[in-house]
Amino acid sequence: MHLLIRLIYTHLFILFSIHCTAQTLNGIVLDSETKHVVPFASVRISNTRQGTNADLNGKFSMIVNSYPITINVSCVGYKTRSILFQDNKSPIEVELKIVSGELNEITVRKGINPALPIIKKASKNRKRNNPDRFLAYSYQSYNKVFASLDSNASLYRQMKERKKIFENREIFVSESVVQHKYKRPNQRQEKIIAFKTSGVQNPLLASLLTDFQSFGFYMDWFVSSITDKSYLSPLAPNGNTKYDFELLDTLVNGTDSTYIISFRPKPSVNIPLLTGFVHINTNKYAIENIVATSNDNDRDINIQIQQQYQILDSIGWFPERSNTIISFRDSTNRLSGLKYVHKSLFSQLNIDPSFKVSDFNPVNREIASSAATLSDSILSVSRIDSLSVMESNTYDFYESKHNKLKGVESMYTIIETALLGYVPLSKINLPLKDFINYNKFEGLRLGLGFQTNDGISKMIRIGGYIGYGIKDQAWKYGGDLQFNFGKDLNRNLQLNYEQNVEEPGTIPYMDQNRNRYSYREFWGSRMDSVRRISLIFSSFIRSNLLYNFCLTNEVRNPIYDYQLTSNDIRVSPANLKNTEISGLIRYRTGEKKMNLGKGVFITGKPTTDGYIRIARGIKSFNAMFDYIKINVGFESRFQTKLLGETSYQLAAGYIAGKAPYSYLYNGESAGGVRKWGYINNSFNTMNLYEFVSDKYFSAFIRQNLGQRFFRSPFKISSPEISFSQGVYFGFLSHQNQFSQPEYKVAKKGYLESGMITDKLLRLRYLKIVYIDFGIGLFLRYGSYSKDELSENLSFRLLTSASF
C-alpha cells in the first residue's frame, strides 16, 4: 500500500513538474490604432532564437519553460515591442504601433546580403513546393467577404450623420463554399455548393467574390484576379535584380528554422512589383507565410495578399488560409476608409485522386442545384469561426429591408444579362444582339430572337430570330433545334436554317456564339445573301479541347458586282450552290467559363488558342464546287521581366481546287485608314476586301513594354507603350476566274508596324473605376504602300476600364 501511495505521489509530482516547467503562452497580436489583427508577427523569447509566428488571424501559441520571461513581438511595418511576464496570463493581447511608411529602410551591410542565399534556395525549390506540382488534387474552400468602414473615415462620418446604419454592422457580407478540382496540366473545376450574400439572392456576386487570389507566388509572375495585372514574384529567378531583400529575423521551432525576409522594389525599376515580407521555412525552403502588397502608383486602390501554408506528412507544403484586403490609398478620396476583406480557409485536401478526363467539363465554375436549399446548413459547418456580432447584424438588417432592395437585385440582373449576352427569362432567353445591330451594308438592323432554356428542357433547345435592315430593306430570319446529351450534356447535335447576309470570306461556326457583338462586323459593306441549312455535331474531348463536324448546304447570291470569267465571257453569277463537310479541333486555355444557373458566360482572356479546320466542297445536292480548304491558327501570350507581355498570332489558309470569290480569303483588315477603333491582330491600314487569295500566311506580334521606360508623374495619365508588327502573304492560283470585284494579291508581303500608347488619359469614375483612353499609330509600308503618306497612316482610339 505504501508503495502504491508513493507511486501515485510520484506520478502527480511528475505531472505537476511538467505543467510548471512547460507552460503554453497564448495570445493575439493587434494593430494599436485599428484593433485589427496583425498576421504573421514573430514572437520570440528575448536573447534567444526560440519562438513562433502568429497565424493569419494574429493568434500565436508558444511553450514557455519558466517565468519571468521577456518576449519580443515584431512585424514588418510595426515597432518591435518587448513585454515582461512575471507569470502566465494567457490569453494576452499584444498591440503594435505602426511606423511611418510601409517598410523600414533597407539596411545596407558590407559583404554578402544574408537574405540572398535563402531567397535563391527558395527560388530553386519552387517546383517541388508549388501546389500545382501534383498530378491532381481536390480541396474545399470556405470564403467570406465583407466590406467595412473605418470609424475615422470621412465617408463613415457622413453616412453616420444621415443614418446610423453602419454603426453596428458591416456594409455587406458574403459567404460561399466551393469544391475545387485540379488535374495537370491546366484543368480546373469549381462547384459552388453554398452561398449567401446580404441583401442579394443572385449568386453572381458570391461567385465573383470567390476569385480574389491564386497560389501563384511560386510562378515567375503572380497574376492578380482583381486587376488582371501580372506582378513579378519575389521568388522568380534572379529576383534580386529587381527586389531588395533584408533578413529581419530567424526563429527556431524544433528542428526547423523560419527566416523572415522583407522585400521591396529596387529604385527606378519600372515593372509591376510587390512589397512585403515572406517567411521561408528550412524544411524544403518553402513559403510558410507571405504578405505582399501591390506597388501601383497609378491606382488608387491598395491590394494586400496574405497567405498561410501548412506542411502535411508525406505531402509537403500546401496553402491553408488566405486573405485579400482591398483599401483606398489616397486619403483625399471620398472612399478612403472603405475596406474589402476576403478570407478563405482550405480543407478536405485530397492529393492525386484518380480523376478521369470526363470528370472535367468545359464550364470551369458552376453552382450546385442544391445550393439554394442547403446553403445555410453547409455554411454553418464550414465557417472558419462563428459569425461576429457585426456580421450577424448585417444579415439581419438586409433581410429586414428585403422589399427595399429590389433595385440592388435588379442591378445584378442587368450585369448578368450583359455578361451572358441575352435576357434570361423563366422559359426562354432573348439574345441582345438580335434586338439591335449595325453594319454599313444593312445600316441599323432591328429584330427579335429567342432560345429556350432549362425552364423547358436541358436536353432540347429551340431557337430562332427575325431581323430587318433599314438600309438594305430586307428581312433576315432563321431557326435552330439542338439536342444535348452525354455526361454534363457537353455534347450536342444542332440543326440550323437561316436566310441572312454574310461577308464573303467568312467561315461559319468557327465560334458558335451569335449572342456576342463584334466590333469588326460594324464595317462590313460587302455582303452575300445566304440561304443555309446545317447539321453540326460538337463535343469536348477535354474541358479545353473542342471538336465539331459540320455538314452545310447553302445558296449564295453576291449583292455586289461579281463577274465570273468563262471562255473570255463575263457572267454575273447567281444562286451559287455549295455543299461542304468540315471538321474543327480547337484548344483554348486561360479563359473561365461560368454557369450560375441561367447560362454560361466567359471571363478572362485566353492565354493559348489554337485550331485546325479542314473542309471539303463536294458536288452533291446540286452543288457546283469541288475543293479542299484548310485553316490553322495559333495565338498565345507570355510575360518576361525585361520586355513585359508578348502576344502573338499565327494563321494560315490553303485551298486546293477552284472556289468562288465568296469562299476565298480576303485579308485580315480592321476596316481601313479612316476607321477609329483599334482591333487587335488585324491590319489597321489595310482596306476592306483589298486583297484576295486562296493561300495565305499572316503573323502578328505585339510587345507591351508597360511603364518600363517611362512613368508619368500625373495621375490622369499612366501611359503603357506597345509596339506591333504584322505581315501578310497571299497567293491566288486561278487569277483569271473572275474580273469583278477588283482585287490585289499580296504575294510580295503586306507589312504594317504600329505604336500603341494605352492609358494616355485616365478619367476616374465614382472614385473607383478608371475609364482609360489611348491612341495607336500604324504605318503601312513596303510593296503595297500608297503614294500619299496619309493613305498609309491610321490613327486608332483605344478605350478600356480598370481599377
Automatic annotation (TrEMBL):
Keywords: Carboxypeptidase, Hydrolase, Protease
Residue stretches spanning the membrane: none
Keyword Transferase: no
Coiled-coil ranges from the UniProt annotation: none
Cross-referenced InterPro entries: CarboxyPept-like_regulatory, DUF5686
The UniProt record lists the keyword ATP-binding: no
Pfam families found in the cross-reference section: CarbopepD_reg_2, DUF5686
GO molecular function, one term: carboxypeptidase activity
Name of this protein: Carboxypeptidase-like regulatory domain-containing protein
Organism of derivation: Dyadobacter frigoris
